[in-house]
Design brief:
Blueprint (H helix, E strand, L loop, with lengths): L1 H20 L5 H6 L6 H12 L2 H14 L1 H28 L4 H6 L4 H34 L5 H52 L4 H12 L16 H17 L4 H4 L8 H32 L2 H7 L6 H49 L10 H23 L7 H25 L5 H20 L26 H17 L7 H13 L5
InterPro entries: Na/Glc_symporter_sf, Na/solute_symporter, Na/solute_symporter_CS, Sodium:Solute_Symporter
Protein name: Cation/acetate symporter
Subcellular location: Cell membrane
Amino acid sequence: MAAGLFVLVVLVTLGITFWAGRRSRAAEDFYAAGRDFSPMQNGFAISGDYMSAASFLGVTGLIALYGYDGLLYTIGFLVAWLLVLMLVAELVRNCGRYTLADVLALRMRERPVRVAAGVSGIVISLLYLLGQMVGAGTLVSLLLHLHSSAARAGAVVGVGVLMVVYVTVGGMKATTWIQIVKCVLLLGGTVLLTVLVLLRFHGDVGSLMHSAAQGSGQGAAYELPGLRFGHKLTDQLDFVSLGLALVLGTAGLPHILSRFYTVPTARAARRSAVWAIGLVGVFYLMTIVLGLGAAALIGAPAIKAANGAGNTAVAQLADALGGTVLFGVISAVAFATILAVVAGLTMASSASFAHDLWAQAFRHPEEEPPTERQEVVVARIAAVVIGAVAIVLSLYAQKLNVATLVALAFAVAASANLPALLFTLFWRRFTTRGAAWAIWGGLVPALVLVVFSPVVSGNAAAVFPGAHFDWFPLQNPGLVSVPCGFLAGWLGTVTSRERAEPDAYAELEVRALTGAGAV
């Protein structure tokens, strides 16, 4: 039955893709879904994009294994939306067209900022994709009882092929509808599991927490800080670094920013963000109950035995509460979650390459600009290539918790994209050099620190457990790389020979605040 539900999810999403593909003709249809989605529809789509495998599988597993410390992920993911609502959603919709680079290029020289923003968008999307693909491999191998590395690799390849089909055939319109359907399914499945957990404990949250503490094997320590982020200075700094990345990263994620272009006005973008905050907030409240329920009913030892990173906790909880039927339903919902998010990420990264790099940055000023049709063709080819790269990279990251992987993407977004975006919108003196330096000055340190962190080497759960080049002690680079991005943007501006164009900033300010001239 479980396998049949998986097939049903795939068939439904493919049906949506081919239906939408016949209605996507111009570049605006492919990149921005024709800008005709309502705020409520877009709010559900944003939530579908945001509530990824990291949230449903990874965060629930972290709460089940580490209690209080796992809960910190939910707080960071949710608080981040306040920054998006107040500073980003409406202004980005007014200033841009398809990507973050469109906002930067409105008052900067195009080539330097498009190269930097395009590369950054692709890198962030790939990092985020790794988390989703790892979740797919874990889920399919658990569902079909396939425990060999070859079977898991086959699952990853299958998801990769599907995500390429979604983007190349259906574009943003298909991706949006898939995300809306996925959001409804995910919220429905999460509500069902939450109600069943609470009924098992007769609505007594105190009893649930006590049972979770006992099931974790940690006793009272489960309800206190320190199980994942210990009490040493390095551990505390790692916690601060993670919080900084989660709270600031959402406002710089390419696939989230691109969602604000699918509505007709800035007011609709703001209302979309309000819808997203409500839906995401309810969802994360329920993941707390699911994490506690998994610890109480399954126990940390059994969760770790199935998957050391805790990625299977939700599926094991569903099996314990409702047997094979509920296990199949929840696994299919989780699979739909992964498919929808990887489609959105692939869409964002292919847009960064085709629209920012190929059509603008790599083209000589005297060269004839490409047609919209040519640009869309290149975006579809880029989706295939990026999908292949994501598949290969994810095969090396199967032992990592998906929430940890996604937190790295948040750190890179907060370090590279957010400084350039905020300086562009709010600093009158900001220059082209400052924008390029902000992106490179956040992106390069973040990636270098990740490579030399415990995530990649130095322990049994790392990508290369037998190697030891983990000289950077923190698992998340945000504490160092985010200030680097802001500092590089400031330094590039104050050392720049060119001066910011006051007329260009005035035009951006008027457009950002009023929508005059917005696409």
